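pinging the channel bc i need a second pair of eyes. not urgent but kinda urgent?? the chain im working w is below, pasted from the shared doc
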Amino acid sequence: MNYLIALLTVVSVSTFPAGAQTLPPADIYVLGEIHDNPHHHVVQARLVETLDPAAVVFEQLTDEQADRLSPDTPRDAHVLGEIFDWANSGWPDIAMYAPIMAATDAPILGAAGAPDDLSAYGLSDPLPQAEQTAREQLQADAHCGALPAAMLPQFVQRQRQADALFASRTIAAFDRYGGPVVLIAGNGHARTDWGVPAAIARVRPDLRVVALIQGEGGETLPGDVTVQSDAPDRDDPCAAFR
């Protein structure tokens, strides 16, 4: 393990320094999050400001939404919320994401949307059985056990496709703008074992990728660097299924 990564594997938001030296050099930074945790977005904004990326790609945006921005668009929550029709997006409050966009004047790009040519990512290849089983269990847990077992493989495949699409869009941003490029995405996409970093490594092993996983004080997913912060007050997401 890289010595700097080892030093920074677990830090807290209260002690997390603001400088770009907090992350090892990379071509692509995948900055993970738990979507509704405002502390995680503070960390992302701080890092985007100090990393000074050539472009920032967002899981939360399609390329069509990102195209609505111009260099003169004010990057504040009200304006961005209107431009992106954020209230109907299903994502947490735009006020958590706007500071990330305001932390840079680099192009803002969308990772979601119509699929690219993803044939290079091996999406039709079966996963090792242990990984398939683990992924299906994660999908079952994420959906509060409400999904029929027969649907779980479909949800695993959707996650694989999303990881490949986000990787494709991030690589395209790097090839167009140079580096570094930042991808803002959920921890499930940022994980290094089978998320976006693994998808990038499959097709572009020449690119250096550093993945940040953000936790809430407990066990976290595999990543190069882990940041812990407090969990926000939230309702039980599974209460409706009981």
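so The chain is about 40% helix and 15% strand. and The first helix runs from residue 3 to 8. — does that match what u expected or am i reading it wrong
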